[in-house]
Records
---
Amino acid sequence: MIISTGTASGKSLAYLTPAVAACLDGGTVLYLTPTKALAADQLRGLRELRITQVRAACFDGDTPFEERTWVRQHANYVLTNPDMLHRGVLPRHAQWSSFFRRLRMVVVDECHGYRGVFGSHVAQILRRLRRVCARYGSRPTFVLASATASEPGVFAMRLTGLEMDEVTTDASPKGSTTIALWEPPLTDLRGEGGAPVRRTATAETADLLADLVLANVRTLAFVRSRRGAETVALSARAKLADVAFSVTAPWAPQATPDSAPWPPHDAPDATGPEADVTGGEIQDPRHSTPPSPLTWAIPDDAQDLAGLPDKVAAYRAGYLAEDRRLLEKALRAGTLMGLATTNALELGVDVSGLDAVLIAGWPGTRASLWQQAGRAGRDGQDALAVLIARDDPLDTYLVHHPQALFGRPVEAIVLDPDNPYVLGPHLCAAAAEIPLTDDDLPVFGTTTPDVLEDLVARNLLRRRPAGWFWTRRERATDLADIRGGGGAPIQVVESSTGRLLGSVDEPSAHTTVHTGAVYIHQGETFLVETLDLDAGVALVEAANPDYSTFARDITDISILATQRSRPLGPGTLHFGEVEVTRQVVSYLKRRLQSGEMLGDEPLDLPPRTLRTRAVWWTLPATAVAPLAAADIDLGGAAHAAEHASIGLLPLFATCDRWDIGGVSTELHADTGLLTVFVYDGHEGGAGFAERGYARATDWLTATREAIASCECERGCPSCIQSPKCGNGNEPLHKRGALQLLDILLAPGAPS
Ligand SMILES: [Zn+2]
Ligand SMILES: [Zn+2]
């Protein structure tokens, strides 16, 4: 069964009740969550129930070795994560025999996080779990809890391999939420190719946060990085300090309490792109004419003003439970009115008592938008949520097309458990757990026989009459890097302390931890000193640069096999296997607050090849002849369409624009035609390009709309420029891209 409903609808109670009942009845329960932090919170909640028969315990990387035996032998409610299940529990199933024998229920919490390649790995881990349970004669009920998703039953079936019932009706009491879509204005700054730079989402969020705090509205601001959250909190505090100073000072203009209606002012702040975020210094208010629009809502009691800035704070991951409880208390009491946070807040703080939520930048999916917006609205009261657009084609599209957000189902969660690069390592792990037999094959999906044959040919598994065996010395589980995309992972080490921060899979290392990269780990910012690919190490140091970095790569693509094709307008749409050669050649630096481009630094990294899946479209020369005749640069038009379509695919497939890549050319060697490719950036594919093929008309229509909606003249980061373009966003032709997409999507043409 999958329960797929909104935030605070009571999902935990729905699985907790039968789970506790199972424990009371002598059974055991396995609870899975994507993060250790969430498991720790769940454990605390369980212990607060004070039911002595429920012996709950976490079993993860932090569990001391001396406690592990106790957990295996005595706990009847075990909280863990897929990583630990994969490496620590399933390979040693014999030690867990009494637990597995009595296993009644498997809870898969926050399961909407299991998408893409990671989700495909988790799907295979759950299949291994089912097989181990069968070994011990148990058939546990799977209960999945998910944020709102399209077709949750279909997703749950792909994830577990079992038929699933779905619960999607949310009957919990709720007020109404007003949603505002907010586009920051263009500034006078100039970026790459002279493109205008938009005021940043963080700067606008800081202003809105200060405004709302002044209006006594309890507000939470979601910001991408911790550094960004801190900037928002600092800027909002500086703004509030300005207000407090200008009102309490003897020369202050008269405050006009309660005279203005909400919202405070309908024109965007006129102070320019940077003035109010970079400076924390207080200006002499005698020179500030006209008085700050913020004075509209000054409270009557001027004594409170000095404390205004202290009403805003930033929240970071890794706070101790006591600190989080203090924070919750301050929010409830109103001593804290504004909180800026990364998504880390999803895990651990109960802030249901809020009036407004600010979301700086599209959070990636409609599902997470509603989840974050759902934080606003206490005790069934009405609430406000504001989505503030970043300079990105998808954000631009959404603030101009509210119909893409409202009144339609949220995304389907996409994963591809049949990806042979994912399946192979798990078949090895499964064979190491219990030798595989013919009866097991259906559990792992239809591609299993082919993948097994390949594993035998590569001497990873041995075929004997009784089945397939793992006979090697090393641990089979080491073959699967479930959070990465294959390849030996690169260790990320803090150079001054030698502390291991984490690991990045080899393909991503080129783009995320190259020398000079700004690397964000659990909201903390580091600067990469060196990336040593041979040693498999990236040395980093904590730093606070005022810019972010974007790796840029150049890409070649060749078609290995076309699996599906269909006509699209006068052209053709294809889906199939490709080989991609990528080389990261430089990185772009952009100032955090203003978005200003600071330069492009060259890098010396080897090319990598990737076998993956792609969706691509072609147009015959006759169809594009009018454009060529009008002297439009076809290469620039295709390139611009490619960039924007990469930006928009996440609207249809739950991926990040960094999970996919593209190639466009006026004439591709394999097709002999103008061709635009979009491929999955993970070995073997992740299901994103396939989704693009299925939804091509909607996807490309949205792409066209995103380009058309942007008010810039010749292209900017909000429409056709891409921060990861290896060609420095050259050539790009905005009008040409629109015409190209018009031809492709022409009504009346077959689609
Ligand atoms: Zn633009
Ligand atoms: Zn490009």
Note: The two ends are 37 Å apart (CA to CA).
---
Amino acid sequence: MTTTVLVTGATGTVSTALLGALKGKPGLHLRALIRDPAKAHALQNDGFEVVTGDLEEPDTLADAFDGVDVLWLLTPASALEPSMGSNAVQAARHARVKHIVRNSAIKAGHGVPTRNGRLHALVEESVKASGIPWTILRPHYYMQNLLSSAQSVASDGVLYMNMGDAPVGMIDGRDVGVFAAHVIEHPNRHAGKVYDPTGPESMTMAKAADDLTSVLGRPVRYVALPQEAAQQAMLGFGLSRWFVGNVVDYGRAYADGWGDFVTSDFKALTGHEARSFKQFAADFASAFGGAVPSTARA
Ligand SMILES: NC(=O)c1ccc[n+]([C@@H]2O[C@H](COP(=O)([O-])OP(=O)(O)OC[C@H]3O[C@@H](n4cnc5c(N)ncnc54)[C@H](OP(=O)(O)O)[C@@H]3O)[C@@H](O)[C@H]2O)c1
């Protein structure tokens, strides 16, 4: 019997890795949800069924959800996340989806200091109240966030982040996709579970700059941006007030040590260590102004 998996966020960091990890697994039919038909071609070339739908618009979702057994529910970081999440859950209910795997966020909860974490708590509630068996992933800070400073690393050897000096157990977003793939292969084993995947090491941004130095073969230093300066810079780039405020929420929390932890969840589920920051830096060296890697893992 074939299990149809609907992958939302199919063009993004985590879901791209998830599709890559599930590709070719026996018994799975992979259906990618996109909102922009212009992005269908690459996914179709990779052999995935592609459907269009907008999570902000519930009326666009019925066909995409029809016949789905497992829903991978990833929504973009946005003030509309609870709306998109509940639209997806409602569509899943109507389509009699059998399992929802939700991509939430670190320490999601109603009383947490990040607006994103509080919105994720609302989506988690929608998922849990759906009557559909569920699994929730609350991944730690993605290493890919450091790509926001890749240009200044490349041009000036400076990693600017608003993260203060406390260590953070960040994870490569691709490993969140790998983790999710393990859950989706055997959803029943993970019903009712909440996982907190992290990277292998809780490390400071100064250590990240050291790793970039060693990978790129030239000096990179970390400059801890004050929150106000980070806020002004991001607003100047035209980013939305919600998004900027969210980055500042996380920056403050992490600077206070809120993210200084790792868990064993990744290794326990997959049987191997999550990628180190050094591996991430090597794989993305070209973005940071270095040579293109010869052995980047997908
Ligand atoms: N960054 C972190 O450190 C971190 C850590 C833990 C958890 N998270 C959570 O992870 C999630 C983001 O994951 P990610 O970084 O892999 O995402 P991402 O790369 O930003 O991709 C977002 C995806 O959502 C799609 N999308 C946007 N609006 C949509 C809509 N209205 N309807 C349907 N699809 C839509 C985008 O499609 P288009 O190609 O059309 O734009 C894209 O495929 C967020 O929930 C965030 O809170 C983030």
Note: The pocket of NAP is lined by residues 9-15, 35-36, 39, 54-56, 74-77, 84, 103, 105-106, 116, 139, 141-142, 145, 173 (CB under 6 Å).
---
Amino acid sequence: MILKEIKNRLVVFTCVFLVGCATKPPHETGTFKPSDLVELIKLDSTLRLDIRYATSNNLVGRPVYNEARAFLQRPAAEALVHVNDELKQMGYRLLIFDGYRPWSVTKLFWDITPKESKKFVADPKKGSRHNRGCAIDLSLYDMTTGKEVQMPGVYDEQTERSYPDYKGGTDEQRKMRDLLRSKMEAHGFTVFEYEWWHFDYNDWRSYKIQNIQFSEIR
Ligand SMILES: [Zn+2]
């Protein structure tokens, strides 16, 4: 763990001083809708948050957010509330790991991820749909037990268990994964081909990449 931390720091340190290492989000042209990021729990207080990037329990091994909060563009957030409502009737609720993500954090993930695992992270030259406030990482929790539902793999795992069509795991784990996917797809989201927990809101192209911090969102 200490070695991993040293390596992470070294990569970030090296990157800062490398010529040509992008430190700003890509320039985008075209017309975009105005950003309207909303805090998810203000729209639906029954959503449960587990913002891993505000803790050390994440792929970086240290917090990368100062605040454990989650935001999405308003239409995506409203669609998510519909998903949560439908799941409640079945005894489940949504468990949110991450929503809008400042571009600088996407850049950090890219820099610390080894080449063979790059498909699990977004290229900062293109930005992530999280940077547009139109992607969400989430799972389910069981209202009876109050516990996170077991899926075929865990959040941010960089193995084939993360693929939404992975055939391994138990019948129950695949059933839960497929339930989450079907409800999200019914409300305008598309699953990422390598991560069962990551969904893009279908109107993501309408919103620009942003780099504002949570504390700056009004
Ligand atoms: Zn994601």
Note: Residues 11-20 have pLDDT under 50 and may be disordered.
---
Amino acid sequence: MPVTSREVHLIARPVGEPEPTDFSLVETALPDPGDGQILVRNDWLSVDPYMRGRMNDVKSYVPPFRLGAPMDGGAVGTVIASNAANVPVGATVLHFRGWRDHAVLDASAAQVVDTAIAPARTYLGALGMVGLTAYAGLKEVAPVKEGDVVFVSGAAGAVGIVAARVARHLGAVRVIGSAGGPEKARRVVEEFGYDAAIDYRAGDLGGQLAAAAPDGIDVYFDNVGGDHLQAALDALNTFGRVALCGAISQYNATEPVPGPTNLFLAVGKRLTLRGFIVGDHQHLAAEYARLAASWLRDGTLRTQETIVDGLDNAVDAFLGLLRGANTGKMLIRLGDT
Ligand SMILES: NC(=O)c1ccc[n+]([C@@H]2O[C@H](COP(=O)([O-])OP(=O)(O)OC[C@H]3O[C@@H](n4cnc5c(N)ncnc54)[C@H](OP(=O)(O)O)[C@@H]3O)[C@@H](O)[C@H]2O)c1
């Protein structure tokens, strides 16, 4: 019996901050699953900052979204019909046909997840790509050593919350996080395991960082770019390391953004600045999954999500993510899971 799916299409390429009119909710009749395929009812959808980049028609590490076609992204759902022996009806699967409520896909493109370890939605956050990003950044890209002082921007976000736990695991003695607003700054310290927080919206980022790290920082995990990278370059100690993970302060920029004016400090301080994409670090996935499962079990890694209900509100959730409406992983819940 064919199923009708509702899916979010990109219908115009945003200039600056995306507008709700750049998107459209479209109904599509799905084919029955063919050989080796499954039909999935999505229960949770992920919205992520990198999706903003895919809305531009530019060459990047991931192709742009096509206009007038469904967007994709991370999702977890329940298999409701299967023509694949290894993925039975009822299984919970992680896959990439997000931004819609149902999907037909090859079973080989879906990963069955173990909901005994953590609720299904956790595989879109701390147990998934998000968590691995924090781990890869601090383990390999800007390796944290015993005794390091670590600074993380976007500290109350999905990656940032995991980064604090990872930094500690790798031996950091002090972990400083920056976030927008006093409430997030409070939670960064009281709930997410940071030693000190900076509210970047309160101004004087450099002064706040110097006060939080009087002996400088050894590692900077950059989710934000711009003023945060500038402040970190000032604060970094000799042979410091920077993991360039994201630059969310620039994703809606309509003009070229000037680089940090103090990049020359990298020479005298012998700094290493390295960009990375989590997909290049899959070899760490099993190791990270084991660690994350144990941290979730012993309570030293807290999952934190901001949940928005319904596909009709998916675009609002994405727009909110870019403005800081989330604490922890921004998720869309479909149905009453
Ligand atoms: N390299 C990779 O492979 C990879 C993989 C995943 C994610 N990322 C990057 O990692 C970063 C975090 O991603 P996430 O999924 O964990 O998102 P997130 O941090 O959960 O959500 C985005 C956060 O960005 C902050 N923000 C927005 N505008 C800002 C600005 N102008 N200045 C400072 N902060 C701003 C907001 O928090 P506040 O309220 O604190 O401002 C917002 O909550 C993003 O840059 C993303 O692109 C990279």
Note: The two ends are 24 Å apart (CA to CA).
